[in-house]
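Task: complex structure prediction.
Instruction: return structure tokens for all chains below.
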Amino acid sequence: MKIGIVLPATPGYSETFFTNKIKGLQEHGYTVVLFVNSDKHTISLPVKIIKAPNLSGNSGKVLLRSLLCLLKSFLFHFSATMRLFRLNANDKISFAKNIKIIIASSHIFSKKLDWLHFGFGTMAIDKENVAAAIQAKMAVSFRGFDHYVYPEKNKNCYQLLFSKKIQYHVLSEGMKADLIKKGIIETHIEKITPAIDMNLFEANLNTEKTTSLKIVSIARLHWIKGLDYTLEALALVKQKGIQFHYTIIGEGQEKERLQFLVHQLGLRNEVTFAGKLNPEEVKNVLQTAEIYLQYSHQEGFCNAVLEAQAMGKICIVSDADGLQENVIDTVTGFVVPKRNPLYLASKIMEVNRLSAIEKTVISVAAMERVKTFFNIENQKVAFIKFYEKN
Amino acid sequence: MYPKKIAVYSGSIPSTTFIERMIEGLASNGYKVSLFGLQLKKKNYSKNVKVYSYSNQLSKLYILLKYTLLLSLFKASDKKKLDVIIANKKNNATLHKIKYYPVLYHKPDVFHLQWAKSLEDWIWLQEFGVKIILSLRGTHITISPIANATLASKYKQLFPKVDAFHSVSNSVSNEAKQYGANPAKTKVIYSGLNPEKMPFMINTSENKSLKILSIGRSHWVKGYSYALEACALLKKDNFDFQYTIIGADKEEELLFQRAQLDLESQVYFEKSIPFETIINKIHQADILLLSSVEEGIANVVLEAMALGTIVISTNCGGMDEVITDGQNGFLVPIRNPKAMADKIKNVASLSENEKKDIKTTARKTIENQHDFDSKIHEMSALYNSVLEN
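Output:
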């Protein structure tokens, strides 16, 4: 079977979801082709990568490139191009936009595929008819931002997509329920949660009481991760006289905002911005931690929380979307209401008061659950089933 | 006696409303004002203002050729000296020539730099006898150097060289002290408003639901996310209100937060609008809310106070230099949605007379402390002080 996956960019080292998926499909004998806008990350897998035409920058160059793409599409892939044009016209897409869509999709025409799978909902916008044009089945994954945030700014952006009879992959029951509400038939939606390679994450139960509580988050420095609310909570923890050190692993555009907040909250000695670390360094930091925090406003599912649980860390997460399914409150960690620093602070202090045995019980339950339900092998099987049964 | 030439440099032309007002104020007080930099859009200035700007590639080329020729012909030794300075800079020499040559040729007496971050770019002017005055404004002083250690050490190295500082508030000048801004060379000159252009109007028409307004660019420093949290608390208490933010439309974070807090029927985001329309919007609002985590002194607060709209502001930066809580407006602690929501409810419950008193006192504060003409005279005195030395 030949599967084409459409992504914004080649998956980076932290985007294990896609690399794992591709690996699993290849192991099963499938051929995978990646269609990307940017190939900035080098990918270690033997996979064919096809870049989308670059339609930004100098307008003269863009015009030339566009004309070339259009010419190539009509000369070498006439029937697919015409099919796309007709399908788009049937959907009342204007002539000019139709031509733009043909140009932007021209790199996909060259491959004969069984499935065309859009890795994010946003990638399928304006490409709703491309799979049908190349006579492939179509699948779309919703992963979080594309499902919860993008439509806030772009109302009705999925209206056309949702009118198509295609297959959807989502990360959580919550996302599945949302799609059903939008009128998607349940049997067309498959929940496949992210998964991790258990061999890479050794358990390290840190139940000894140390003088300073070690807390870690792995998160892009982006507003969606709720790090400002996390820091507000930690300021309250400090006020209660509890000594701690908080390390944030990750880079991002909100660095200045968060650094200033740390300064305003008087947490300069308690907070470290570790920046982007390689997987080995991440593991080292996690190993010494007692509590892992993920207080996001929105989260599709969150691999980092799975990894922290696999390493036996006590996770305190917000109740944002997929996180509620990632952690079972009071059994495998703690789930607290989002956007509520006061509540988060009291939960951190509560966890700090737990006995070593109580902590171990939670850690073990989390590790067992991750091992059983979020194992990479399960995920590989689930994806093969996804393509074979539909 | 007035100095011949003052260059007011912000990097772009036109600049922010308040800098533009200062430029016109100086020009109408007899100063010859020169503006250099990138022309963002066309603007007609009065005859005392001369613009030496560039916009597209062609105009940059023209500027480069024109001033290379003029400097070579009439100021060859200065050009040679500047070329050595440019050669020692790491980045693009041609771009530096386009920026620097016109300034060297027209050589102002005072180069009044509006933003601290570009001080490193212009300190060379002192070698040609030009006095440098630096305005200490907002985030360049209060935030950027805190998050950026390299910038902080640049400031520490360069601030002691500056001839004089203009600070927008006492709080900013206090902050700048740690980077070596000499208090003896620093003059706090508040923003000035022209009271005639700011009609005071007491809005007694009862809005059905309380109208709260914020105005300002979409930036985290404005603390809008705290304002939205406050709105969520108001809604929870069934308080009837409408909150509008002008200048923050299409901001993903706020759109998402509004949806997540279920505030779509109470909170509206609008794009920036011209100043004349803003006056109208402020007049119509019951409360002007400033939710910032840091400010020099927010100009929009001064405008609202002049126009007769009650201000609730976070107690950040220099805001307490304008507002005395409960007298001419209200102050709440920063990053505290609960306090913000409570204060909004308090203000809503004031009697018409109490509101009128606050509005009238606010107007007087602006007339006494922020009168445009006296601010221009203070600026003029600052220019004279460096030229006399």
